[in-house]
Specification:
The protein is α+β, with helices and mostly antiparallel strands and 100 residues long. Helices cover 19% and strands 27% of the residues.
Length: 100
């Protein structure tokens, strides 16, 4: 039995600045998760990922990430890793780093 498809977006890291970026409907990258184009099928997801992978001069490591639509009708992250990435890089010691 095939698994139900869950909507996905394409995310990567900006090649020059390292920020998390999200692939948009205009084939550009945005630092705003809510600007991402949402793939509602496996075929659409593969096409979007392929278009993103063609921009290796702008980003590194494009991949698909599950998303849900928020009350504002914009994609919202699902996994805690993706939530963390929307907040930008941390530049202070915390967790294990604080005890070193």
């Amino acid at each position: 039995m095939a698994r139900d498809y869950k909507p996905q977006i394409v995310t990567a890291n900006d090649l020059f600045e390292g920020d998390a970026v999200y692939f948009t409907a205009s084939n550009n990258w945005s630092r705003d998760h809510g600007d991402a184009i949402v793939a509602y099928s496996r075929d659409a997801a593969e096409k979007i990922l392929s278009a993103a992978n063609a921009q290796q001069d702008k980003v590194v490591g494009p991949y698909l990430a599950e998303t849900v639509m928020g009350d504002d009708h914009r994609p919202q992250p699902v996994h805690f890793r993706e939530v963390f990435r929307t907040r930008g890089p941390s530049n202070y010691f915390h967790g294990k780093q604080a005890g070193a």
